Amino acid sequence: MKGHPLILSSQTIMKKLTLLAAMALATLCPAKDTKKILLLAGKPSHGSGEHEHNAGSLLLKKCLDESGLPIESSVIKNGAWPSPEQLAAADTVVIYCDGGGHHLVLQDDRIKQLAKEMKRGCGLVCLHYGVEIPKDNGGAELLGWMGGYFETNFSVNPHWTADFKSFPAHPISNGMKPYAMLDEWYFHMRFTEQGKLTNVLSAIAPEDTMSRPDGSHSGNPHVRKAVAEGLPQTVAWAFDRPDGGRGFGFTGGHFHKNWGDDNQRKVVLNAILWTAKAEVPAEGVSSKVTPEELAANLDPKGQQSNLSIKPLLPGATVNPAICAACKH
Ligand SMILES: [Zn+2]
After folding, report:
1. Do 240 and 194 contact (CB within 8 A), yes or no?
2. Cβ-based burial of 46 (10 A; exposed 0-12, middle 13-18, buried ≥19)
3. Where are the beta strands (DSSP E) in 9-103?
4. Would you list the domain boundaries of the chain?
5. pLDDT of 73-84, one tens digit each?
6. Partners of 197 in beta bridges
């Protein structure tokens, strides 16, 4: 028996309207659950295979893009600065650059621009030298946004192998397995007493981390006492700001080849998601990097280009001549 043609037609129209409404909603709100990650890569510095801000950021983007998670990432290279629109859209900002007095956030009114985004709850991740900024020029801001930073004459920057044996109960620890890594792990950071700080990566610093004389980056009585006491030193931390925003500091990342390690990538990729207030998968962010991908996008570094990442393969030691020439 046939139904009434008018009724059938109404049902069809309703179905079509419902479908159209759903499609319109999806079009209007495509990014509602998609987190936007903005990676800011600093200018080239150091020898080849070290402080590869551009290549490192592009590698992290590749891993984020291939994760299949609801995220969108973009990289601003060579110390350039994003547009106000890009900043305003970011759920988290990842900064991998040379720091100190030349930190890329210290140019123009960038600190002011970032402050606006932090206030609305945007996350912040700083990698390696990017965690260092002068105490009286940006120190208070990084402390408030990230919970800690490298303070000269208090923090130190030795090269050492950190043995990470366990991880705290925290989404950034998802899927992490114990690992050891030679890096320029800064430690004895200046931490805030506000908000909630979680030590994500901690290890006992060996005595030879204090083999250099006292100096702005090499040693001071406070850190010598802490190392002598065998206290675990935090080299990566998560921070819940009192206002709800999130920050993460990671002091490794001197050697580009270390991004070839699954755990080293995972802890940073997890942290990027967490600071963007995205859900971190139970097994953490899984990623694969081939030797070719690891060697891609390295900065052209002229005379220093003979310092390929080859000498930094596992088991190799750092060229002391290079370390003597660099502060980080
Ligand atoms: Zn370094």
Report:
1. no
2. buried
3. 35-41, 71-76, 92-96
4. 32-325
5. 999 999 999 999
6. 239
pLDDT digits (tens, 9 = 90+) for 122-144: 999 999 999 999 999 999 999 99
41 CA to centre of ligand 1 in angstroms: 14
pLDDT of 32 > 90? The answer is no
Can you point out the beta strands (E) in 10-167?
35-41, 71-76, 92-96, 123-127, 148-149, 160-164
Please tell me the predicted confidence (pLDDT) of residue 20: 56
309 contact partners, CB below 8 Å, separation of at least 6: 48, 49, 255, 256, 257, 294, 295, 298
What does CATH list as the number for 32-325? 3.40.50.880
pLDDT-derived band of residue 200, with 50, 70 and 90 as boundaries? Answer: very high
Q: How far is the CA of 17 from the centre of ligand 1 (A)?
A: 58
Residue 128 Cα to ligand 1 middle (Å): 7
